[in-house]
Specification:
By secondary structure, the chain is of the alpha+beta class. Helices cover about 45% and strands about 20% of the residues. The chain has a six-stranded mixed β-sheet, with helices on both faces.
Amino acid sequence: MIDDERFVQHVADRLAGLPGVRAVALGGSRGSATHRPDSDWDVALYYRGGFDAGNLRGLGWPGEVVDPGAWGPLFDGGAWLQIDERPVDVHYRDLDVVEHQLAEARAGRFDWQPLTFHLAGMPGYMLLAELATGRVLRGELDVPEYPDALREQAPGRWWRFAALTLDYTRGNHARFGRVAETAGALAQASCQAAHAVCAARGTWVTNEKRLLESAGLRGVDEVLAEPGTGPDGLVAAVDRVRERCAAAVRAAGGVPDAR
């Protein structure tokens, strides 16, 4: 087995040679040099004017390859592959979409997409976060700074998501003793509030794996561990999560009147 650097350069060469591909970048923990020895490889190919997944299949790497758009308008599509006995996730990134999301972020706006494995969903500026925290291997890509307008506008929007989730959960699930619904909604609201905190700080977020830690909200675990199964206990759990989330958002300077 070749060493890691030769491996990733080999993968980058093959991907960069596919029709339509303008750049290749290494993301995830490998791109930010925070990986473990057993971490997988997240590689993004940036294309312009369309991409034919059949060309990726034609490289002959074992695994599953989906067409562009299969994972939604923002996350696009990609592949789960085994290359030289290493697990590699390939993500398609349409440069027209990335540039649109950058323009939106600079205007203080962002699109949002429900996404598997993401409790709070995917904000469009996550595409920018990948650029800012990854490593360009082939081609040229603009690495954006965190837009000031996004820092001003995104926290309030995320806090509204969180507050609405908490209000609905308290009145429609917790007070009726619905444990599963309450627990799930509290986890979602905590991630929404964590996005508000990170946006206020100008901290890029690429996924939710360390989102609560980054926002100082890991303490929500204590609430979810012992919510009780009766209505009173569940309502109290909702109120405690709200207190923790609102305090974190206020401390970050995102929404002064968060409550």
